[in-house]
TrEMBL record:
Entry GO MF terms: ATP binding; ATP-dependent DNA damage sensor activity; mismatched DNA binding
GO cellular component terms listed in the entry, alphabetical order: cytosol
Record-given protein name: DNA mismatch repair proteins mutS family domain-containing protein
Gene Ontology biological process terms in this record: mismatch repair
Xref: InterPro entries: DNA_mismatch_repair_MutS_C (IPR000432), DNA_mismatch_repair_MutS_core (IPR007696), DNA_mismatch_repair_MutS_sf (IPR036187), MutS (IPR045076), P-loop_NTPase (IPR027417)
Domain DNA mismatch repair proteins mutS family: 260-441
Alphabetically ordered keywords of this record: ATP-binding, DNA-binding, Nucleotide-binding
Biological source species: Mucilaginibacter polytrichastri
Amino acid sequence: MSFIADKQTLEDMNLLGKYKQHSIFSLFNKVRTSGGEQLLTKMFQTPLIDPDAINTRSDTFKYFQSKQVTFPFSNEQFSAMENYLSGSSGTNYPVIFINLAKKKLLAIIVRDEEYPKVQVGLQQTITVLKQCKTFISQFEADNRHEHPFYNELLTVKNILNNPKLGWLTEEQNDSNQYSLKKAAKYDHVLRHKMQQALQTVIEIFYQLDVFITVANLAKEKEFSYAKAFPKETHYLTASALKHPNIPKAIANPVSLSQGSNMIFLTGANMAGKSTFMKAFGINIYLAHMGFPVAASHMEFSVKQGIYSSINVPDNLVMGYSHFYAEVLRVKKVAAEVSSGKDLVVIFDELFKGTNVKDAYDATLAVTAAFSEYRNCLFIISTHIIEAGEVLKRQSNIQSLYLPTIMNGIIPTYTYQLQPGISSDRHGMMIIENEGILKMLE
């Protein structure tokens, strides 16, 4: 079973997408190799639900952050080695020697490029493997019990110290090309005898690319690592939680539990409700990946997934109005919640596509019904503050708001959560400040 986050949720949070502007993936995608990028993509697509696996991955990031190392290779270097190792000149030394001899002869007679390509690929591969050996040697002194990546690095060390590669350290290659005899010998070892083992080395170095790069980003951004607990504990607490992709974002504390499993959020337009909810959802998602989070401290019980309803579009092709699209979204989430799944649910301004009376009745009824599922955590925002006055009587619903401070007739915003329900109604004031009515006189 894997962590659930559907297309709507991923788009609401802007989580995925290499080329999507300000996506969370692009924030972390500073890796140097294409294999590292593929691994990073997979991690983003498959958050974890096992607390031990989450904590182990977080510990690995923390370990490399403490080492303050830089991944020493470029994509070109690793691609050249992969391309070379994926080819073959034969399965045994005599065949390889004969094939390379033919290619060398063709290179001399008709300037065929195959033999020079083998020489270049061989040289590049030997250079990278020697550098790999040097790079991992800096971690050898670390105790295996304090070293979450110990087994992987030991695997690399054992492969590169294999007697079949005993010549690797001594080989200097001061000349432009290896002799035909050496080229055949090295090619046989690298592309036949040790090919699968060296592919393991490459894959582990792709992991190193991700772990080192993300760890360095966490240090630069002053992110921390969330601690995962079994789902039965049903709680989440975070200090100074903020949006990871907003410079100088305002931080807020969040605390939810089985006895207080819902935040009912109010505040004026532009007060920061949607940004806070996205920040919450993004950090929940990153925490389940075992990735660094934009908070000073965070602990959480693992959930099975997250659903949001923030930017629900209408569907003209299907003939759905905005309100009906909202209703269908709530219906989908209700089906998931009522099935018994442990979920995080984020609804921004429920039923804003209908009249005030229906919005009030629907918000009140749906919010109260959802809150009874104590195994789930909810944040629900609304402008229907009258519903909040009724819901605050329930002990498991926290009423929080984001305030507006008026400087004369100009509204300003603190983006800091406060207990209670907002009474701010500044819509007409903003319209008047913009001079819209005067334009229409």
